[in-house]
Amino acid sequence: MSRTRIKVCGITQRSDAQAAVAAGVDALGLVFYAGSARAVSIEQAQEVALGVPPLVTLVALFVDAEEALVREVCEQLPIGLLQFHGAETDRWCGQFGKPWMKAIRVAADTDVQGTMRQWPGADAILLDTYRKGSPGGTGERFDWDLVPLNPGAPLVLAGGLNEGNVSAAIRQCKPFAVDVSGGVESAPGIKDHQKIEQFIAAVKAADVSRLEKNYEHF
Q1: Enzyme catalytic residues
Q2: What is the enclosing helix (H) or strand (E) of 118?
Q3: Which value, to the nearest 10 degrees, does the dihedral of the CA atoms of residues 49, 51, 55, 57 take?
Q4: Rounded to 5 degrees, what are φ and ψ at 47?
């Protein structure tokens, strides 16, 4: 059993990046979408990146962005993963020479596994909550019963996660990674460092519990 990876998204300040790194995060998300309260400019993102050491992945999030913006971000920042939340096609997402993941907004009638087949080149699929008119970051959870247990690609679980429910999410969904933003904030784009620590501790505790249960079967 591999451990659950952890991504904190919507980072806007270097101090928040440093706090998340100190707590044990695996990846940090930078939002390049003007419609988000957590959006950053390339200059702001460069300041954040100064607080990110090697082996912690910087993720750049886009929503139907211009190709030129994606390329500029990749040129100006040490991005390790691209994340797409719009109507981008598989071919479009794969043109930048970077690992990438595609977000699927999950509603009550979503066929998650069928929808995933639209992006066969994705290195991972992120599942977020559907809300009409919003590309993501709703702070709401969706029905975890819709998460396929044998998806065929690494799944990143998002949507309304916090320190109080992430353990249950991991037990039920067994995702490759969890992604949190609003659940560790004091205000949009401003992270609460204690909540980050509590969230990461809850993920680690859930992994330990799963490992112990696996040993009970021997």
Answers
A1: 9, 128
A2: none
A3: -40
A4: -65, -45
* DSSP bridge pairs for 83: 61, 101
Summarize the confidence of residues 1-30 as an average pLDDT.
96
Tokens (6 digits) for 60: 């750049």
Residue with tokens 């991005």: 79
Task: Kindly report, residue by residue over 127-140, the tens digit of the pLDDT.
Answer: 999 877 666 566 78
Task: Please say if the pLDDT value at position 29 is more than 70.
Answer: yes
Express each pLDDT in 138-173 by its tens digit: 678 999 999 998 888 999 999 999 999 999 999 999
Which residue, among 64, 53, 59, 45, has the nearest Cα to 24 in the 3D structure? Answer: 53
| Under 8 Å between Cβ of 142 and 164 | no
What CATH architecture applies to the domain 5-216?
Alpha-Beta Barrel (3.20)
- By C-alpha distance, which of 181, 31, 180 is closest to 170? 180
Report in angstroms the alpha-carbon separations of 34 from 26, 64, 115, 159.
25, 11, 26, 20
Instruction: Tell me the two tokens of residue 58.
Output: 């910087």
Residue 180 has pLDDT above 90, yes or no: yes
- The domains of the chain are located at 5-216
Take residue 89 and report the two structure tokens written for it. Answer: 């096609």
